[in-house]
Amino acid sequence: MFAFIVRRLLLAIPTLFGVLVVTFLLLNVAPGDPVTEMVGERADSATIARLRKDLHLDEPRLKQFTLYAGGVLRGNLGNSYITQRPILRDILERFPKTLLLAGSAMLLASILGITLGVLSARNPGGWFDRLGLGVAYLGISFPVYWVGLILILVFAVMLRWLPPSGYGGIKYLILPAFALGSRSIAFLARVTRSAMLDVLGGDFVRTARAKGLRERVVIVRHALRNALIPIITVLGLDFGYYLTGSILTETIFSWPGLGRYVVNAITRRDLPAIQGSVLFLSVVFVLVNLLTDLAYAKADPRVAYS
Amino acid sequence: MDPALSTDVPTGRAVAYIFDGLTRFTPDAKVVPGLAKSWDVTPDGMTYTFHLRSGVKFHNGAPFTAKNVVSTFQRVLDPKTKGGRGWPLYPIKGAEDFAGGKGQAITGLASPDDSTVVITLKEPLAIFPKLLAMPVTSIVPDNAGSDLGQKPVGTGPWKFVEWKHDDYLKFAKNPDYFDGAPKADSLMARIVPEMSTATAEFEAGNVDVLTVPDETGKSWEADPDKKKLLQSAPALRFWYVAINTTRGPLSDVRVRQALNYAVDVNTILSAVMAGRGTAANGVVPPTLAGYDASRKPYGHDIAKAKQLLAAAGHPGGIDVELWAANTDQSPRLSQAIQANLAEAGIRAKLVQREASSVREAARKGAADLYVKEWWADYPDAENFLFPLLHSKNKGPGGNVSFYSNSKFDALIDQAHREQDETKRNALYSQADAMQFNDAPMLYLFFYKDMYAIQPWIHGFTVPAVFNGQRWTDVTIGK
Questions:
Q1: Centroid of chain to Cα A114
Q2: Which end of chain B is more exposed for a tag (fewer CB within 10 A), N or C?
Q3: Which of residues 16-45 of A touch B (CB under 8 A)?
Q4: B252-284 pLDDT, tens digit each
Q5: Which residues contact B123 (CB under 8 A, 6 or more apart)?
Q6: Which of B200, B203, B354 sits opposite A267 (nearest CB)?
């Protein structure tokens, strides 16, 4: 197990290096000059030339890359072109908020999605199953920004139950978490349903029922446990979606997380901030994938890593 | 919120709450004394003597003196500050050299005693006091480090309390403010990126004052309850399409005039901008001296557009690229303009990219037509005529039409030297008429700002210039 983790972490190094190279190249070939953004609408050529030199933008690409990569290796993601604050500090300030939002959305999606899936599977073709199917279709079809705006309109403006946007206590968290999790609820419900149906037809379920176990115990302890593998896969894969989805959700709900930071950085051509955020999110993604794999082993004793 | 680094409107607004310049703008765009209680200018217009207020203290208790002015201006220009906006101070003798790393001090800047600042310009510039009301020239305390942007300390009506990044900014009143403490106790600026969310916050009663998006404004104006909350005023914002006068057929004035006749500005204004503005008859907006109400906009005349194109040798029309940012109103504006141009036989290919790359291409001269907006930095006709059209400012300076007309330049240069307000404004009118005829741009409209104000808020007026509203007269009551 330990050797497996170490090997996976070592394998992550070339992956992250690749991310570093690709983002650097993409940002450099994309049109648009960061200095244009820094100086605003009215500027003079001397200032532009001076800033380009200060930021090493006048150096050859390879030199720029080695300067940047050298900084990254020393744990320095550079300073923002716009605010001149250290990028790493900005990221570490915002990431916990994104993690809170993504985590809440995931929790919400797991509870609602799995429950919905299990209940649908108990009586396939029944009214609840069909209702669940309808809900799932809607959840998958509606884009997150639309769901977000509708939630704001209904629960904040019309009913006034919750604040429309902002960051604070749990009441600020409910709407964005639900908006971000809506697609996953639908997806998880469908995956859980089909996994459960596969399992419920198994001999061991019949045996459990024959032993006289209560239905709830049969479903939760015997069937669901065996249906968990595909559910974990979906949850792990969805994590990437939570990170990208947070970009839209955070913008709509004015949530001061990393997603909004990235959007700001992109519109303002803040190259080190974009690069730093992408790299950081890649690290998170690699770690989540590792955790997903470890969760397989926990859920299914037949899976063992060495 | 470091004044030396402020180049955008939201930062500029926040800087105006916390800091003071030697001068400042009122909401109706007049320039009035700030930290300088008065100033004299020599008859040749070269030397300004600013008499500073005494007894003013920074929020940290340090006294404000003339030395702060000198160190602030040096800080703005110092290459180590990495600021992008030194130009408002370049008129000072030696300032540009200092910014370029040449020279130990700004030769034209002196503080003979604690309450006097003497500024010598490199050439006369009648609008100079207005440049000192810009965010970048706000006075900062001594030893202001790089932390000033995070924990700003100024002399202004509001003290900085807290900045939750991407969430809100909080200010408390400065009870000792030299111009009278603000009437309200605190001020909070919410940072909401999505306009429909901000609108929802206003409707939920969580926000007191809102800048109303175009379409929302239209529907609220039709709602009697909402209409009562709305306040609008002409802004110093000008929408236009820069025509690169150096590219192909666009170098012909007849073609440029044809473009102007081809576009139905009034229809676009009502369909795309919810009627928020008035058709432009030049670059000087109606609220500023130098505006000439007697000049008519080009008007919509397809036949005339075709006739001008034919006269210029393009009876079959021309092909151009129309560049626009993919944000805000730009995409819809550019599509409407494209459709109008097509009626006159002008085949415009849309190039939509994100704002900074469109701007960069236009600055390099790579865009034929570029849909854009200009926000005034200071309320003066000069702020439209000089950056947008003087040949000195081609490219990054703001003249992305690459317009070059020595007679026009001469008028603007003369206006810069002219100390008499009336004569100066007459020169602006004349220059505006001249360029309007040369049509280095497709004149769209002067925008109107609209705010919604909750019934419990009193004393708010819509500012004409973005940093003209400092919330000092605003009160909260039932």
A1: 19
A2: C
A3: 30-45
A4: 999 999 999 999 999 999 999 989 999 999 999
A5: B46, B91, B416, B417
A6: B354
